Amino acid sequence: MKVLIVEDEQPARKRLRRMLEAYAEPTTVVGEISSIEEGIHWLQQHIQPDIILLDIQLTDGLSHRIFEEVAVSCPVVFITAFDHHLTQAFQYHCLDYLLKPVKEEQLYRALAKSKRVEAHYAQSLNAFLMEYAAPKPKYRERLLLRKGLDLIPLKLTEVAYFYTEYKVVFAVSHSGIKHLSGYTLTQLETSLDPALFFRVNRKYLLGKEAVSSVRPLPKGRLEVQLLLDVDEEIGVNQPKAQAFKDWLAG
């Protein structure tokens, strides 16, 4: 078993190493780290160990900051001198926690536990990190649109919908004012928040706040009515109909 020790107190590190050397199963200490920055650097440069013994309070802060920088896929045993850190430890799906001074039987129990749950732990921690630590997509909040000879910034909250005509894409505001967009509908579809805008067909990209009603049509199609007057039917074909209704209700 390969173990990484993250502990800022040298006597505590020596004590952990001595207990690991006496453990019944072969155990190798692959690194001894004393700070958050060292821990981040080590994990970025090395294959992850089988288990990490991690002191919660290090000299440069709380060690859970490591998880904000590195996707850790191995079990972690948190070590702390204070009970009030335990809630934070379990927020990171820790395998176990040990109170200082660490006792031999407690450490060995945690090592044995890691063998039993290692596969399940890696899966659950990765899911946690993907949900809470992964960077969120950043969508446009405004566009630079043409009005006559001028370019004007327009917040997307002011846009009711986009449509294309003769290969030119227009943005229409909630007040009915049209602007040349300078973008294709595909570019807009991929750069705008999908919770706010939906590409209903090849011609229209609608904002959620612009829709007044939806009318079912034969063969699973939908007709969309907007708050603004439009000179033609805005249709949604059957393959997109359910996704559109889910989007509108969300």
Walk me through what this model shows.
The protein is of the alpha/beta class. It is built from seven helices and 17 strands. The protein has two domains: about 1-130, Rossmann fold (3-Layer(aba) Sandwich), CATH 3.40.50; about 140-250, OB fold (Dihydrolipoamide Acetyltransferase, E2P). It has helices spanning about 10-20, 35-45, 65-70, 85-90, 105-130, 185-190, 240-250, and strands spanning about 1-5, 30-35, 50-55, 55-60, 60, 75-80, 95-100, 140-145, 150-155, 160-165, 170-175, 180, 195-200, 205, 210-215, 220-225, 235. The longest helix has 29 residues, at about 105-130. The protein is elongated.
Say what oligomer this is: single chain
Q: How is the main sheet built?
A: 5 strands, parallel
Number of strands: 17
Measured by DSSP, the beta-strand proportion falls in 25-35%
Category by helix and strand content: alpha/beta
Q: Within the CATH hierarchy, at the fold level, what is the topology of the largest domain? A: Rossmann fold
Q: Going across the major beta sheet, what is the strand order?
A: 2-1-3-6-7
Distance between the termini: 48 Å
Order of helices and strands: EHEHEEEHEHEHEEEEEHEEEEEH
Residue-averaged pLDDT: 87
Low-confidence stretches: none
